[in-house]
Write a structure and sequence with these properties.
alpha/beta
């Protein structure tokens, strides 16, 4: 079986190195793993909408798809928002119908926002800003919010890597919902503070109610499972890719 390419979409304030532990597990197994940086994270001046972020993930996905690859889009946290608006016409089914190679065969969300069309993160959170904004809080708060199950020195290192992020991207509404056309896997993180369990389950219920094809797995882990439990995340992605892989999840 030819394994799909996995495109990783990082969350707000973070960068692609967040995925390094998981990628180091998957690449020796034959998975091509692709990362990139969203313009919304770290750019000064800040972007004013989701448009540049949507274009970024679409360009990366298209490069792999046009080369004939089957692609899994794996989004973490905020990364699910631009990802779901970027994939119109890129599903494997749509590409085959149009006589084109490759396509997105699955979405694999890890404690990610998964929103309907015309919805922003601020809509879901019930206010203009999230309750956690690294730009506004001291390092110890960010350490507890994002990395509370990591060793203290490792958590400090990740806090030092946080970047500024465009708050406009939290208030821009989505343009489409790729999960309506592409089968989806979702890893629920039960000890997540920024995206609490109740919010994850509510978003998943909305997907199901609107006809989305979604399968879920669960871990008792923080907002950063790629760092705290990389083997488990790798196993989740292997199953999303169609492997009959079992661990003690």
């Amino acid at each position: 079986m030819v394994k799909p390419t996995i495109v990783f979409c990082h969350g707000a304030w973070h960068n692609p190195s967040f995925f390094d532990k998981v990628i180091s597990i998957l690449e020796p197994m034959g998975y091509k793993c692709v990362t990139f940086s969203f313009p919304g994270a770290g750019n000064v001046p800040a972007v004013k909408s989701l448009d540049e972020d949507i274009a970024a993930v679409r360009a990366v996905a298209l490069k792999e798809i046009d080369a004939g690859s089957n692609v899994i889009i794996s989004a973490h946290s905020w990364g699910g928002v631009p990802a779901c608006s970027a994939l119109d016409g890129l599903s494997k089914t749509e590409r085959q119908r149009d006589g084109k190679p490759g396509g997105v065969v699955r979405l694999a969300f890890v404690t990610s926002f998964i929103l309907p069309e015309e919805t922003s993160i601020s809509d879901v959170l019930g206010g203009p800003l999230p309750i956690w904004v690294p730009d506004a809080f001291p390092d110890e708060v960010n350490k507890d919010v994002f990395y509370h199950d990591l060793p203290s020195d490792e958590a400090d290192e990740w806090v030092s890597r946080l970047r500024v992020h465009s708050l406009a991207t939290f208030m821009t509404k989505t343009k489409s919902a790729a999960w309506k056309n592409i089968p989806t896997s979702y890893l629920i993180c039960e000890n997540d503070k920024p995206i609490p369990l109740e919010l994850q389950e509510s978003m998943i219920a909305t997907v199901k109610n609107e006809g989305g094809d979604i399968e879920t797995e669960r871990l008792f882990v923080s907002h950063s499972p790629h760092l705290a439990m990389p083997e488990k995340v790798a196993g989740f992605l292997r199953r999303a890719a169609g492997e009959n892989w079992k661990d003690d999840i």
